[in-house]
Automatic annotation (TrEMBL):
Pfam families xref list: LolA
Spans through the membrane: none
Stored InterPro entries: LolA/LolB/LppX (IPR029046), OM_lipoprot_carrier_LolA-like (IPR004564)
Keyword Signal in record: yes
The species this protein was found in: Hymenobacter volaticus
Signal sequence, start to end: 1-20
Keywords carried by this UniProt record: Lipoprotein, Signal
CDD domains xrefs: LolA (cd16325)
Listed name of the protein: Outer membrane lipoprotein carrier protein LolA
Amino acid sequence: MKKFFALFALSVSLCSTATAQQDPKAGKILDQMSAKYQAMKAYKASFTQTLENDAAKVKENMSGDITVSGQKFRLKMSGQEVINDGKTMYTYMKAENEVNISDYESDEQEISPAQIYSLYKKGYKYSYVQEAKEGGEVVDIIELAPEDRSNPVFKVRMKVSKVDKSVRSWQMFKKNGNRYTVKINKFTPNVPVDATTFAFDKTKYKGVKVIDLR
């Protein structure tokens, strides 16, 4: 399951505060992007994630969708469903008809689906690369590099729409040769959510095996 969360985690384990002079042009774009998402009560996105490792000749595609509201989220991806209600995590595996329940820890790198929108604020240096086109849309490309050299991630490249400051795609480069590319296929802001959106209802999963790890 951890590789799925590479989508949003991007190594949240960094805890040092940025001290180097940051690129002001990149910083302005990132601030505008971050403010856009933070202003939403909730949002939903469908995405495609591609994992590539040229040396190992690996290329894997996965699709999914996620609904986010603050620290709460519901992620569906590759036969698994992960629900976080802000206090508890439920990881449901369809093939096994099994759900693992664990306490939510806000500082764990695997459980921060909104991290991409605030990643730059702590522990990363960022710089403006260039303007480009993606899918006929003009985007600004920004690169982030961790200050902590022990981080397994050495670079994150983000593409932000020049028109509405939304994140169109991003790439995460790891020292082990893995490269994750995430493309947002559809984004819906301010989707309606309620208490049931981020709750695991056992009655809807007939015969489910419950493993409580708390």
